[in-house]
Amino acid sequence: MPAYSYSDYITLDSPAARLTRLRLHIVEVSQAVLSPNLSGDGKSVDYASMQQYLRDLKAEESRLAATVGMGLINGGVSHSRNVRA
Question: 31, 34, 30, 11: which is closest to 21 by C-alpha?
Fold first, then answer.
């Protein structure tokens, strides 16, 4: 498995930052999946086996995007207040 720059997305505290980093990681993995399979000197890399990992990442992206989009960053608590004109 190749080394990834953005695989640490899960360690970020902010859901919005985590989503951004996850999307960068998805790009990395997508590029690896499109790479040709390699073999030589008794070693091989089969990138097709990483397709399930990519599907899992995309599912996590959907869940996280829904959380960020619904304003659940603060636990679903609204911090707005009405101001009279």
Answer: 11
Structure confidence by residue, pLDDT tens digits, 15-68: 999 999 999 999 999 988 887 666 667 676 667 678 889 999 999 999 999 888
Instruction: Write out pLDDT tens, residues 51-66.
Output: 889 999 999 999 999 8
Q: Please spell the DSSP secondary structure of the chain, one letter per residue.
A: ----SSGGGGG-SSHHHHHHHHHHHHHHHHHHHHSPPEEETTEEE-GGGGHHHHHHHHHHHHHHHHHHHTTGGGTT---------
